[in-house]
């Protein structure tokens, strides 16, 4: 395996395979180059997920602000057209 960017599903599967093949109990039996590539792929996957989570949080905050502004506008008294009387 050479280093490449992983999807979240690939990352989970790769960690599970690593642990099943002895990485948990005897990591010295694992091929160090493959472990290094796996860790680099996992790092990139986590960084991307972290970025996506941050972006989703910003969108949620912006939506909340928009919702508050809309509710405030809805609660303002409406002109009746009779103010000149």
Explain how this protein is built.
The chain has 85 residues and is mainly α. The protein has one domain. Helix content is 69%, strand content 0%. The protein has two helices and no strands. The chain has helices spanning 8-23, 32-74. The radius of gyration is 26 Å and the shape is rod-shaped. The mean pLDDT is 78.
In terms of topology, how is this protein built?
Layout: H1 8-23, H2 32-74
Helix pairs in contact: 1-2
> What helical percentage do the residues reach?
55-70%
How many structural domains? 1
Query: Distance N terminus to C terminus?
Result: 82 Å
Q: Provide the β-strand percentage band.
A: under 5%
Helix-strand category? mainly alpha
Total of helices: 2
How many β strands by DSSP? 0
Give the low-confidence spans.
none
Order of helices and strands: HH
Shape: rod-shaped
The main pleated sheet reads as:
none
- Radius of gyration over all CA atoms, rounded: 26 Å
Mean pLDDT: 78
Annotation keywords:
85 residues; mainly alpha; 0% strand
């Amino acid at each position: 395996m050479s280093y490449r960017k992983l999807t979240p599903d690939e990352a989970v599967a790769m960690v599970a395979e690593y642990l099943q093949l002895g990485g948990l109990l005897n990591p010295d039996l694992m091929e160090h180059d493959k472990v290094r590539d796996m860790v680099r792929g996992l790092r990139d996957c986590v960084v991307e997920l972290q970025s996506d989570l941050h972006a989703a949080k910003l969108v949620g905050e912006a939506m909340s602000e928009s919702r508050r502004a809309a509710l405030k506008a809805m609660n303002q008294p409406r002109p009746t057209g009779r103010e000149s009387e």
